[in-house]
Amino acid sequence: MDRIKIQNLEVFGHHGVFSEETKLGQKFLVNATMYTNTRAAGYSDDLEKSINYGEVCHFITGYMQNHTFKLIEAVAEHMAQAMLMEYPLLQKLDLEIRKPWAPIGLPLENVSVEISRGWHTVYLSAGSNLGERQQFLRAAVRLLQECSEIRNLKVSKLMETAPYGYTEQPAFLNGAIELETLFTPQELLIVIHKIEAELGRERVIHWGPRTIDLDIVFYDDEIVAESELIIPHIDMQNRLFVLEPLYMLCPGKVHPVLHKTVAQLRQELISKTQNKWSNE
């Protein structure tokens, strides 16, 4: 991805742990590397197709002057999020906040914090088999859309499927959701659990009936193996109700562990199921 760089932007701000720092203020230096696609702007010579670095410099200056934080870690975190939400063409950001002559009682040129933040592409599996199933699924999408850290939602068509695992329950409506988010995988898990709780999800029977079920299937190409979170979804390759809606959104998405596309996994599962039926 192409990069636009801002180096050593001088900003006067009031950030620090000590009261003198927040009252008197001091100079900070900001370095920003902005990841975007500059090809359209390069061919057209049209500033509207790129990120206006002049506007960004004024945005950074205004943000640091109008906010006060104790830690430069907090300055970097909050400002990075503000920038990513302000500029739609900004996909990723490397941001460094440098604090010259930090008051530690020793000769020091500067202290700095450098972070990388950006938008991540996520695919969710969504299902419901209690009550007004379609309304619950629509409500889940609406609640996701209301999160400022989530954008560009796309939703597959819904399909009705037989229950998986625990079969003594009503049929499901299933779909898939594509979105971009600033949340980490762990933060996104907390968000979707809150949405499930708000929509009446109760975790009583494993694989049991539910008003809404949201699972993270893919998060970029990341592999996460934690007690509460496994990405890619550990059993997606065996679930046609996951693969079929995903196929509508991202047939060419490659599973980072199995190294097969969603289209390949779907076709393999269909063939496996057909062979099973023919042998019975």
UniProtKB/TrEMBL annotation:
**Gene3D superfamilies in UniProt:** 3.30.1130.10, 7,8-Dihydro-6-hydroxymethylpterin-pyrophosphokinase HPPK
Which keywords appear in this protein's UniProt record, sorted alphabetically? ATP-binding, Folate biosynthesis, Kinase, Lyase, Nucleotide-binding, Transferase
Catalyses: 7,8-dihydroneopterin = 6-hydroxymethyl-7,8-dihydropterin + glycolaldehyde; 6-hydroxymethyl-7,8-dihydropterin + ATP = (7,8-dihydropterin-6-yl)methyl diphosphate + AMP + H(+)
Alphabetically, which GO biological process terms does the record hold?
A: folic acid biosynthetic process; tetrahydrofolate biosynthetic process
Pathways involved: Cofactor biosynthesis; tetrahydrofolate biosynthesis; 2-amino-4-hydroxy-6-hydroxymethyl-7,8-dihydropteridine diphosphate from 7,8-dihydroneopterin triphosphate: step 4/4; Cofactor biosynthesis; tetrahydrofolate biosynthesis; 2-amino-4-hydroxy-6-hydroxymethyl-7,8-dihydropteridine diphosphate from 7,8-dihydroneopterin triphosphate: step 3/4
- Would the keyword Nucleotide-binding be found if you checked this record's keyword annotation? yes
GO MF annotation terms: 2-amino-4-hydroxy-6-hydroxymethyldihydropteridine diphosphokinase activity; ATP binding; dihydroneopterin aldolase activity; kinase activity
Under Enzyme Commission nomenclature, its number is 4.1.2.25, 2.7.6.3
| InterPro entries from the UniProt entry | Dihydroneopterin_aldolase (IPR006156), FolB_dom (IPR006157), GTP-CH-I_C/QueF (IPR043133), Hppk (IPR000550), Hppk_sf (IPR035907)
Domain spans labelled 7,8-dihydro-6-hydroxymethylpterin-pyrophosphokinase: 206-217
What the entry lists under NCBIfam families is as follows: folB (TIGR00525), folB_dom (TIGR00526), folK (TIGR01498)
Q: What is the annotated role of this protein in its UniProt record?
A: Catalyzes the conversion of 7,8-dihydroneopterin to 6-hydroxymethyl-7,8-dihydropterin.
The entry's family comment says:
In the N-terminal section; belongs to the DHNA family. Belongs to the DHNA family.
Q: What is this protein called?
A: Bifunctional folate synthesis protein
**Organism from which the protein derives:** Eubacterium ramulus ATCC 29099
Species classification: Bacteria, Bacillati, Bacillota, Clostridia, Eubacteriales
